[in-house]
Design goal:
globular; Thiol Ester Dehydrase, Chain A; HotDog_dom_sf; 38% strand; Acyl-CoA thioester hydrolase; 4-hydroxybenzoyl-CoA_TE; hydrolase
């Protein structure tokens, strides 16, 4: 299992004196980027292929509080990947120093061509690197329809209502 360890800093604590929501997001992002950089997705590699990762959503489930003073570990597993590598889904689990799972997150994203500003698949050598991440038991091959499984669509508002 791919993991990163974090020390909970003063700036990671919220008004309730436990780990703040923003810290969860930052720890997950750092874990993902650590895996990517170690597997051929460093800044130079992404620039060479003109790629950037985009997040479609992150659904975090909180099971128990965690406080400053002990290290936490964040895991990363691949829950889904499209055949062309355009779409991916990760699962992150958060563990305290005793191995207790205190939070979990399902995250879906994709790859964007930074010049065209459109979603794009991965070159084959990068798909193989990406697919090397440990898979969840319910891993699946993703399709475009999977990116819309929650049925959310934007709803614009009259700009006058925002004044």
């Amino acid at each position: 299992m791919y993991t990163k360890e974090f020390e909970i800093r003063w700036s990671d604590i919220d008004a309730n004196r436990h780990l703040a929501n923003t810290a969860y997001i930052n720890f997950m992002s750092h874990t993902r980027m650590g895996f990517l950089m170690e597997n051929g997705f460093g800044q130079k590699d992404l620039a060479k292929h003109n790629l950037g990762p985009v997040v479609f959503y992150e659904h975090v489930y909180y099971f128990r509080e965690v406080f400053a003073g002990e290290p936490v570990k964040v895991s990363l597993q691949l829950k889904g990947l499209s055949e062309d590598g355009m779409y991916f889904e990760f699962v992150h689990n958060f563990y305290d120093s005793k191995g207790r799972n205190f939070a979990s997150c399902e995250m879906m994203g994709g790859w964007i061509d930074l010049k065209a500003r459109k979603l794009t698949g991965l070159p084959s050598e990068l798909i193989n690197n990406f697919d090397s991440l440990p898979h969840t038991e319910d891993f699946k091959v993703l399709t475009k329809e999977d990116t819309r499984k929650h049925g959310r669509k934007p709803k614009d508002v009259d700009p006058e209502l925002l004044k």
